[in-house]
Amino acid sequence: MSMKLSSHIVEKPWGRTDLPNGFTNPNGFKIGEIWYDHAQKQLPLLVKWLFTSEKLSVQVHPNDDQARQYGLSSGKEECWVITDAKPGATLGIGTRQAINKEELRALSLSGEIENIIDWKSVKAGDYYYIPAGTVHAIGPDVTLIEVQQNADITYRLYDYGRPRELHLDHGIEVSNAKIYDDERSGSLDRLPLQKLVSGPFFHLWHCRGSQNIHQLKNERYSWIIPITGYIDIGNETLKTGDCGYAKFDKTINISDDSTFLVAQEI
Length: 266
Description:
Layout: E1 3-4, E2 6-16, E3 31-37, E4 45-51, E5 58-60, H1 64-69, E6 78-85, E7 90-95, H2 101-110, H3 113-116, E8 117-121, E9 126-130, E10 136-138, E11 142-149, E12 155-158, H4 168-174, E13 185-187, E14 193-198, E15 202-208, E16 222-228, E17 231-233, E18 236-238, E19 244-246, E20 252-254, E21 259-265
Antiparallel strand pairs: 1-19, 2-3, 3-4, 4-11, 5-12, 6-9, 6-11, 7-8, 7-10, 9-13, 14-15, 15-21, 16-19, 16-21, 17-18, 17-20
């Protein structure tokens, strides 16, 4: 069942009209996200590219137990891999100090939450795992790949005055507003195979060329996300802007100049 996954363009007020090489925007929309999923069924993981020109809302996602209390099938944890960032670009991850739920509500209502977020300078090659409950935001001038649990569930705490709904009750209830200290963060190295994330919902690797790729061969299907170069899977060729779903077997051919992500469900 090797295939190129279907792509879905999502307009966002914070999106971009100028997209990186490999992407097209013939209608000049403000594209914020491109989602990759199966056309007929929902897979357990979802892959996205994100392109920002403004700050995203300050937001939070619930864990599985919390989501099920609200009648949803799962929560949402995710990993960001930065592919491009202009000088001065930032990500907001966690808060600069631990704050309780009453303080979080007051800061969200006043807008001061923007100043309590820990805005981290970022560059291409940085990556961060975002556990459920982490208060977070993405700043402007960033291009990133997001691998996540396949759940469209986001609670906005603050949105810079944009006319969009906030979700303060649910958002504050599921938030764990504290200093970010997750060890699943760092920078990509020059190794042919680097493991970025090991659980609890998926494994994620960064790969260069085909060396050591045999270590990823197993019976599970993988999400394959090219960054540079190309990858042949069956009768399909994947390049920047594509996402494949396949097993690593003899039908896969990887160009020597390729760099790509591989995600596998646990």
